[in-house]
Amino acid sequence: MRRKKEVLKYAPDVDSALHIIERSGTISGHELCYRRERLLLEQIGQVLEILDNSRDEEDTRINLWFTAERGDITDWRTYDDAVEYEEINSREEYEQFWLDYYPDEIKFYECYFFRHGKFMAIALGERGLIESPEEITQDKSGICADTTPLLKWVLEQCRKAVQQIISGKYDGFINNNLPYYYRTGTIPRKEYWKIVPEGRKYDLAGRDDKILSEEEIKIFEKLVAEQKTFSDDDFIIEDMTAAKYFAYCRLGYEANNFPHCKKIEDDVELYKRIADGRDNGLTEIALDSPEEFNRWKNGKLQVFNGNHPWEVIRGGSSTHVTFSVSHRLGENKEGRYYLYLAGLHRPGEVIRFFIALRQHGIMVKLGDMEELLARCLGTDKVGIVPNGVLPRYCEKFFPGEKVVDFMNIHYWDDEYADFVEKTIWQEVKTPQLVRDWMTVKELLQFVDMEKLVDKECRTDENESADRADVYRLWQTFLRKMSEYHCQDSEDMLVFMRTWDGLGDEVEEFVDVSLYRRLDLDKFRDKVPNVVLLPEERLQQLSEKELIEYHKGVYAEVPEGYACDFTPWEEMLGFKVSIGNLRRVGLQECIHAVLTEMTFHGMTEDDQSERRQELDEAIEEIEDIRNLPQEEQEKHLKSYEDVCEELGWKDERSPEVQAAGRKRFWYYNAVTANSVVSELREILK
Question: Are residues 600 and 658 in the same domain?
Fold first, then answer.
């Protein structure tokens, strides 16, 4: 037996958790009991907020696709568990059962997130509905299934999905990898019949699986063409009686070879035997009286017992045959009726019923006539709906198309590839970002902890640090930032790739600068007009020309500021451009932000101490600058003096030093190009 897991990793873990909530919930879903569950649900809502395109502020509806690896066979069940619970008898059966449950290495789960006011819910996969009608301030009493592991998994999957959307990779991944049995499309019925030959028999079957013959289809096709030449007045029946109605029913029953027809001579009794039975007293009125039929039709003689007098061949809500006597549309005149026959999903019975009436000269309107004929000829389409969707009443999946039959293809193993090839598939609808920016606080929701820890452990400061300690340190800091107050701001952080060109080996890294909104607005018209030279041209410039180029570029763009001393609550409110993140790299940008935020430490005390040192240094410099020039020179030292005191001496030849300086200014010029390029995109 599979034990409950606190951390869900593989598809069997997720399915086991879903099974538990399905088993413990009601028909409407599993209601949360614990405060920690509600908080996780609220976190999920915060992560998905950037995808919320609902016009109504009270409502949110977002759907995403998640994935989970199937893992190894033992991640499903051990062999002993499979023997006990799956009743297998061999290792071969053990492996086959596993592959039957998990045929693909990756399993997809569709997740719907709902919010209306305080009501929140998640529908996951085909059977997992978790709901929380209100905030939970304290845990509820009683025995409740704990969905915390599942909600943690959903939260992590939401973060991964939104990261992919931000990076522009989600749509491509889903369109290239989502199995077709989770998609929607249409296949021409004739192609369906080629793939599944018995499908034609099913589509055209009548009673006792007797399919419509080619001769019957030709007769029906001819009658349909003839039907189109009639006017509405041609269908009017005068002096309608119950006796006529039951006689017409017999014609239809006989055409369908009901065995009761030979045994029961009375038309009313035959109707009672085959029809639904809830006739509202139609069988009790005077059979040959048009007046009584009129009174019954207008409700004066009806005896309510279910209101199904016209269900002449019993079936479900969509699988019965209707044969009604109706007033002409827009009229309600006694004695002026028309007959109406319908049974789209009982094609054999309803078509034979129709042919029999018409061959006896009885005028009757046929519902879904064109659709029935198209089915007979195989010229219509069958709708394929996602696995987990009951293939009934799925018209809404095909807007602008006339599709009346639906199917799933998940279990058609041998025919699956043919279905994929012959089906016209709809584009998979994926959620889109509702704004082109996010705050730094929102950005930090999408930290890839493994990548962050890898990068940190490769730095000189943490090279010998324990990985688990580094992980916990950053986890604590990020949790603190998620709870930190965030100031509203219109100022923006801009990321750009830059280079350190001082040494012999050039290092590329992502830098971040703060741009004030007022400055961005002021330079909005100037930035697009800055003339940038391509890198190959920059390589040809002299050091002096590179310096002038660098100076000229920055004269036309707003000034960017360092933000390592910015208070956290202010920095968390800065905006970042999603396009900027996408172009530079999401995790690289996150690392650049975290580097700035923690440059002076990861606690408020560290930050305060460094700010105090900075303030004291600024105050000291201001005091020095107020001194006479001779006194200033005693306190302020040149770069050369500092190098001499530290024992730094550049022993390289003048030519090598000159080349180094030129390389430095070349990479500064390339960085300037990067800054302008990003600002142009952001200011569009």
Answer: yes
Q: What are the pLDDT digits (tens) for 193-249? A: 999 999 999 999 887 888 999 999 999 999 999 999 999 889 999 889 999 999 999
Pair type for strands 321-327 and 337-342? antiparallel
600, 452: one domain: yes
Reported as a pLDDT band with limits 50, 70 and 90, residue 526 is very high
Rounded to an integer, what distance in angstroms lies between the CA atom of residue 546 and that of residue 180?
Answer: 56
Residues 410 and 511 in one domain: no
Residue 33 tokens, joined: 């009991």
For the stretch 46-74, pLDDT in tens is 999 999 877 666 788 999 999 999 999 99
Residue 646 is assigned to a structural domain of this protein: yes
Residue-level length of the chain = 684
- Tell me which amino acid residue 517 is: R
| Residue 351, amino acid | I
Q: How far apart are CA 48 and CA 114, in angstroms?
A: 11
Exposure of 436 in the CB half-sphere (CA atoms within 13 A): 7
Q: What pTM value is reported for the model?
A: 0.82
- The Cα 395–Cα 406 span in angstroms is 9
Q: Where do we find the tokens 């908080």?
A: 39
Contact 325, 357 (CB under 8 A): no
What are the structure tokens assigned to 332, written together? Answer: 């309600």
* Domain of 369, in residue numbers: 188-425
Q: How confident is the model at residue 1 (pLDDT cuts 50, 70, 90)?
A: very low
Higher pLDDT residue, 546 or 663? 546
| Whole-angstrom distance, CA of residue 493 vs CA of residue 495 | 7
Q: Rg of the Cα trace of the chain?
A: 38
Q: Write down the residue that tokens 């509905």 correspond to.
A: 129
Q: Are residues 395 and 277 in the same domain?
A: yes
Q: Which long-range contacts (CB under 8 A, 24 or more apart) does 248-252 make?
A: 248/323, 248/339, 248/357, 248/362, 249/274, 249/275, 249/312, 249/323, 251/353, 251/356, 251/357, 251/360, 251/362, 252/312, 252/321, 252/323, 252/349, 252/352, 252/353, 252/356, 252/357
Helix (H) or strand (E) holding 610: helix 604-625
Q: Is residue 605 part of a domain?
A: yes
Q: Are 471 and 453 in contact (CB under 8 A)?
A: yes
Q: Quick one: 449 and 356 in the same domain? A: no
Cα 25 from Cα 146, distance rounded (Å): 11
Count of structural domains within the chain? 3
CA distance 565 to 91: 64
Q: Token pair 């589509």 is at which residue?
A: 203
Do 420 and 441 have their domain in common? Answer: no
Q: What ranges make up the beta strands (E) of 343-394?
A: 365-366, 381-384
pLDDT score of 27: 55
Amino acid at residue number 70: R
DSSP letters, 506-548, are -EEEEEEEEE-HHHHHHTTTTGGG-----HHHHTTS-HHHHHH
Q: Three-class SS of residue 375?
A: helix
CA-CA-CA-CA torsion for 609, 611, 617, 622, nearest 10 degrees?
A: -150
185-188 and 119-124 beta bridge pairing:
unpaired
